[in-house]
Amino acid sequence: MGTSRRVFLGLIAATPMLGHTTTAHTTAATAAAYANYSDIYRDPALREGVDWGRRMLRHPQFGRTVVFAPHGGGIETGTSELCLAIAGYHPATLQPSGQVHDYWMFEGLRSSGNTELHVTSTGCDDHYARSLAAGALNAVALHGCTITEAERNWRTLPDQACALVGGANADLRTRVITALTGAGISAVDASAHPTLDGGDPANIVNRTLLGAGVQVEMTTPLRTGMFTTNTAAQRKNTTTQLFWDFTTAMRSAVTGLEATQQIL
After folding, report:
1. Is CATH 3.10.20.740 correct for 3-258?
2. Which of 71, 100, 114, 249 has the CA that lies 20 to 30 A from 50?
3. How far is CA 222 from CA 159, 233, 242, in A?
4. Which residues contact residue 135 at a Cβ distance below 8 angstroms, ignoring those fewer than 6 apart?
5. What pLDDT score was predicted for residue 244?
6. How far apart are CA 79 and CA 236, in angstroms?
7. Beta bridge partners of 260
């Protein structure tokens, strides 16, 4: 697999987008749940830039790993900022540092009621997100959950501030758990969780060239501890040491996996 395949897969997207891009569609609010992103994009009641938004970046050179935040902004708070940082960009300045990765995020932009915009990861039909996944060997998806959701029908967490690591890539799953634990962050293997396991092949994180990625569910206390001012406007400006420890651990796990992969 080489750059030519990467370019071919990039044509799946309607328009190549280089740079930290926010896209626009006709959009708006309804009390109904959405089965996929296409339903949101087609809803004439919703307004992009008011109710929802997308941010994405595809690098011109081949990248092994893509980072996703399918429920960013006010849907699962903190995941947008982590998506940028793990992809190698400072969430406040967007300045790159070290190795950079492609990324895609969908964000709820309302002051409240963003959970209405939650689309399951198996319902992620965004053409750009799927194109990025299809052109990458690996994927990391960042999610947020409550303690109740994390423990429901499963087991008690070792710490309320905990990361549940799932997804179909067992190697990367182990690397992430090891790296997070080494950074002093509680992390457990969630591959057996009844709802947060992230193992479905239709999950956007598993739509890679290898058919496997890693989904990281972070409890509310873990995400809250990553910012001194946990608001939409100030999260990016008030990241704590915990935020950067988490970011460094995730990037280290990805780098370690990429070092074992050969590009043909």
Report:
1. no
2. 100
3. 9, 19, 9
4. 5, 6, 9, 10, 62, 66, 209
5. 98
6. 11
7. none
Tell me which residues of the chain have a pLDDT lower than 50: 1-18, 23-32
pLDDT of residue 29: 34
Token pair listed for 180: 């997070």
CA distance 219 to 203: 20
Enumerate residues 6+ apart whose C-beta is below 8 A from 39: none
Which bin fits 211, alpha (ψ -120 to 50), beta or left (φ > 0)?
left
Q: Which two tokens stand for residue 29?
A: 């609010």
Each residue of 146-185: b (16+ CB within 10 Å) or e? ebebbbeebeebeeebbbbbbbbbeebbebbbebbeebeb
The residue with tokens 């997070």 is 180
Q: Going by C-beta distance under 8 Å and a sequence separation of 6 or more, which residues neighbour residue 241?
A: none
3-state SS assignment for residue 194 = coil
